[in-house]
Amino acid sequence: MLAGALAVISAVFLLLGALQGPKLSSAVVDPQRVTEQAGTQLRLFANQPLTEVTAEQVTVSPPAPFTVSVQDDLLVVQFDQRLRYSTEYTVEVRDVGATARDATSDFTHRFTTAPGSVLYLDRDEAGDEVLSAPLLGSGRGEVVVAAEGIQHFAPVEGVIVLARDDGAGGSLLESVQPGAGGAVEQIRLPEGVRVQQLIAPPIGTLLGVVLTSTPVEGEAQGIPPFSNTLAVIDLAGDRVVNPVVGLDGTPLSIITGEFLPDGSTLIVHALDQTVVQVDVAGSGLVLPIDQVPTVYGLSTDATKLTGSDSFGGLYLDLESGEEVRLNPSLFEGELAFGGESIFTSGEVWVQKVAIPDATGGAFRTLLVADDGSGASRLLLRTIDDRGSIGSLAVSPNDQFVAVEVTPSVVDAVPDGRRVNGRPTSITTVIVDIETGAVVRTLEGFSPVW
Question: How far is residue 158 from each of residues 161, 175, 177, 209, measured CA to CA in Å?
Fold first, then answer.
């Protein structure tokens, strides 16, 4: 009787197992990285090998583009774009089958992405500070680095690189470990130079610097060795300043530059208005792309470069090399004149526009979001239109834009710095691109995501 009962129970369990599909054993996703890098994966582990899963079986909420694949007992959902900060995502996979049986089951996994933050520079008579401010919260944020005479800063692989005033019109370059009492290492620069810009890579340790020789009082001024000269420093290598050579064999003088996502290729706007692509890690190849008088910046997915010429705004498709006109839409039915613009990874761009009054004798400057549909929507304007809107920095996941704002142009007082000077009243305003809501206002400038 006992043996018979056990046989019946075993048969029941075998039948239940045959009727049940595979089970979700565990799931792995990096909540920080998924907001910073496209292509991050959610890895779902089953208790047995799985059959193929198609994209039609998967739902991601809130919606996000993805691809899906199966490797034995591992189901991978790869997000094509960066996800939103501080957001709960639900991933449902329907009718998941196993290779060993016909039964199917559904997988569901929920995760919350990490909150976002922004770095910025706050100058004060008591000293200068680089701070990290979370998007959710209040106050100034946390001091990352404090030092005298900060001209520029750049985060590179866990350290903060500072260009500081050397007291003689030039610059000192330092690598600083974040936090109180962090180790400081000086990076040797050529004698008598000023750092005009620091160009931080999205990954890796190659730092771009733009150098200009400083005049020496009482000495005859010939051709300076450095004049807006682009150079690269490998912070993980010998830390030598290596000038980048242009097509004519001389050091490349530039207006500005940005790294592509690989951290080893620069898109550069040269002083002769040529846009070039430079491989700074390998061959040093310089590839001309186009000629553009004004360049604004790369889209968040690094496929478009916005700029303008005498005919108005434009963008360059970096894959095809095609030049496309970028005409601002009407704002509340009024004609808008476009200024600085930055594309998100989709078809939406953030742009400064000027709206003339009825007489055409005065303008108000606004920040808008535009999708080319014929009507833009407001993101930011200053109180009574007394202020000015400065540089823009769109978050890597297209969720926010950080904007430098001077609240009142008439009342603005310069901070007296010879390099990278700003009004003392300058603030950084962070706006949600989708809703137009202001989420943070910080007393400082040069926001870096």
Answer: 10, 10, 7, 18
Spell 417-426 as b/e; 16+ CB within 10 A means b.
eebbebbebb
Over residues 66-96, the pLDDT tens digits come to: 999 999 999 999 999 999 999 999 999 999 9
- Model confidence over 2-53: pLDDT tens digits? 666 555 455 444 444 555 799 999 999 999 999 999 999 999 999 999 999 9
Let me know if residue 173 belongs to a domain.
no
Number of domains in the chain: 1
Residue 319 is which amino acid?
E
271 Cβ neighbours under 8 A, 6+ residues apart: 228, 253, 254, 255
Q: What is the CATH number of the domain that holds 56?
A: 2.60.40.1220
Q: What's the token pair of residue 63? A: 């919606």
- Encoded tokens for 56: 């039609």
For residue 426, give every residue at least 6 positions away whose Cβ sits within 8 Å of its Cβ, in sequence order, or none.
390, 404, 405, 406, 443, 444, 445
The token pair at 394 is: 């769109």
Tell me whether residue 250 is in a domain: no
What's the domain range around 36?
Answer: 21-112
Residue type, 34: V
Is 11 a domain residue?
no
Contact at 8 Å (CB) between 399 and 84?
yes
What CA–CA distance (Å, rounded) separates 29 from 343?
28
Please give the Cα distance from 194 to 172 (Å, whole number).
8
The verdict on residue 103 lying in a domain is: yes
Q: Within a 13 Å sphere around the CA of 80, how many CA atoms are in the beta-carbon half?
A: 10
